[in-house]
DNA sequence: GCTGAAAGTCGGCACCT
DNA sequence: AGGTGCCGACTTTCAGC
């Protein structure tokens, strides 16, 4: 179910990416449309699932979560149900912000958030390494952020005639 | 500037993470507070930078961005200004969703989003590998997503007496 | 598919507890 | 700190174009 998005839709999405709580009236004014027409388009985008939700963006450091790390995990494939077991373990660990299955040497790539280094160490040593089926871990602490694209829309305009 | 967040603040943040466009009235009702007291707390959280903004969540696949990849990049450190040059190159590539400086073998970890595999290949071969100072690339395509934590708050409740 | 008007609802503020 | 009440602004629906 991929919809045909015109330029007005893309401008709506751009605005809502930058200002998720903008009023429908302001949004309509910014894209030069009447409030009701604008609202109808937004609802269509929501119903189509293009917009899957809205959320506030939180500052992890201000919340006391100062350590971010990227962890690649390799599994011992002789352990039965290694995948299912690990997936369900991940759900119980709030430190794991995101988990992906990846190609290459490792099976999984995790992004982990902790309060400090000792919290991170505790997570790696006492929980991740002790999880059933885990063979090896490659742990990379994030020293700094260079780029964090707020919108995923920019790439659409490259070599794209829509 | 780290503020003391009480349980009411955390419940406000939880609600706004899940429903970024909830009305202040509904939010106040959900956390059992009057609308004005609730709004005052939200404004304080915004002013303190705990809430850094609001945005809609888009579905990359519905937008035609089907390929996600994790790329580790190592640099040739003998090239002058290798860091500054690479950082500014990254800003011009919309395919790069996020870029981090990491410890370990590689210098950078990138998350890349492209329309399809040929678009990804074009990015890696024609742009990333040709960037000045790039020595080696470890490219891992994402096969699936196991976990994507919408809220960063869960980890606060672990071993945390606030 | 967009516009415009009408009715219900909300956000923001002053003021009080 | 939290609650109440008010007014201007907003959202949302339903006509008509």
TrEMBL record, chains A, B:
What organism, scientifically named, is this protein from? Pigmentiphaga litoralis
- Please name the GO terms that the record assigns under molecular function: sequence-specific DNA binding
GO terms of biological process kind: regulation of DNA-templated transcription; response to amino acid
Identify this protein by name.
DNA-binding Lrp family transcriptional regulator
Q: Give the domain of life.
A: Bacteria
Keyword flag DNA-binding? yes
Q: Which Gene3D superfamilies does the record associate with it?
A: 3.30.70.920, Winged helix-like DNA-binding domain superfamily/Winged helix DNA-binding domain
A single GO CC term for this protein reads: cytosol
């Amino acid at each position: 179910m991929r919809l045909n998005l015109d330029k007005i839709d893309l401008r709506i999405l751009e605005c809502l990416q930058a200002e998720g709580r903008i009023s429908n009236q302001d949004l309509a004014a910014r894209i030069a449309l009447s409030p009701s027409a604008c609202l109808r388009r937004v609802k269509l985008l929501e119903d189509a699932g293009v917009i899957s939700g809205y959320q506030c963006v939180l500052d992890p450091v201000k919340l006391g979560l100062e350590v971010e790390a990227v962890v690649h995990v390799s599994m011992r494939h002789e352990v039965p149900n290694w995948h299912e077991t690990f997936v369900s373990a991940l759900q119980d660990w709030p430190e794991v912000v995101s988990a992906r299955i990846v190609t290459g040497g490792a099976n999984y790539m995790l992004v982990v958030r902790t309060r400090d280094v000792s919290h991170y160490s505790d997570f790696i040593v006492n929980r991740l390494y002790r999880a059933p089926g885990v063979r090896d871990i490659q742990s990379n602490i994030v020293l700094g952020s260079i780029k964090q694209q707020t919108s995923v829309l920019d790439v659409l305009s490259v070599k794209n005639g829509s």
